[in-house]
Design goal:
With about 230 residues, the protein is mainly alpha-helical. The protein is built from twelve helices and no strands. Among the domains are: about 70 residues, Alpha Horseshoe (Serine Threonine Protein Phosphatase 5, Tetratricopeptide repeat), CATH 1.25.40.10; about 80 residues, Tetratricopeptide repeat domain (Serine Threonine Protein Phosphatase 5, Tetratricopeptide repeat), CATH 1.25.40. Helix 6 runs antiparallel to helix 7 and helix 7 runs parallel beside helix 9.
Length: about 230
């Protein structure tokens, strides 16, 4: 169909054949219907080109958003949270369905001390990706800091259900320890170590819980392991 359209357009605008003998009749002017055909065909071509350009721009959105996300990540390490937030916001502006960008921006807001905005971003991240375990764990940590114990436990449970991670088990272990439930804290630290055996902060936390249970030998072993990992 496209070939036929271009053929018709060419037939309408191509120059007439050269005269074969002196005194040949001059070339005819384009008829009105030919001019209309040219205008319509050019309009179709321009519309198709514009449509393709828009499609290409939209198709590149995930990569452009990822580039902004990666740039924002580099600000998190040094603690430049305002710059990180701005970068994640640009990523979200390009790709509003980017759940990881909402999660990362929420973590930046939390680190900067703005927990209300952090919670809003975690909520949005979960709306976009209900399996985003880190978002539940992050909400749990904020609720724990506010003393909302039941909400914190519920969030950690959701996080572990979505995907068991060292962070969720560790954070819930901290909550159990705060409540004086040392055995449950040890059980969660055991799970955390099973997922990440080289995390010294988990060994130190378990050492405290073991000591509170009267297990001094276990506590000493955990402290030694934490020191070994810290200096490894």
């Amino acid at each position: 169909m496209a070939e036929s359209m271009f053929a018709r357009l060419w037939n309408a605008v191509k120059p007439p054949p050269a005269a074969k003998r002196p005194g040949a009749a001059p070339a005819r002017r384009l008829r009105p219907e030919q001019r209309r055909l040219i205008v319509i065909s050019l309009s179709v071509i321009l519309a198709a080109a514009a449509g393709f350009g828009m499609y290409a721009y939209l198709a590149s959105a995930p990569q452009r958003a990822q580039n902004q996300f990666n740039a924002a990540q580099r600000f998190m390490g040094p603690g430049n949270y305002a710059e990180a937030i701005a970068g994640y916001t640009r990523a979200i502006g390009i790709l509003p369905t980017m759940a990881d960008a909402y999660l990362a921006r929420g973590l930046s807001y939390h680190a900067a001390g703005d927990d209300e905005k952090a919670l809003a971003d975690f909520d949005h991240a979960i709306e976009l990706n209900s399996g985003l375990a880190a978002a539940y764990a992050a909400r749990g940590s904020i609720y724990r800091s506010r003393g909302a114990i039941d909400q914190a436990f519920a969030e950690y449970a959701r996080s572990i259900q979505a995907q068991p991670t060292v962070d969720a088990f560790y954070e819930r272990g901290q909550l159990y320890e705060t409540l004086g439930q040392h055995a449950k804290a040890v059980a969660d630290y055991d799970q955390a170590i099973a997922y990440q055996p080289d995390a010294p902060h988990v060994y130190n936390a378990r050492a405290l819980s073991r000591a509170n249970l009267g297990d001094e030998e276990g506590a000493t072993a955990d402290r030694d392991e934490a020191l070994r990992l810290e200096h490894h």
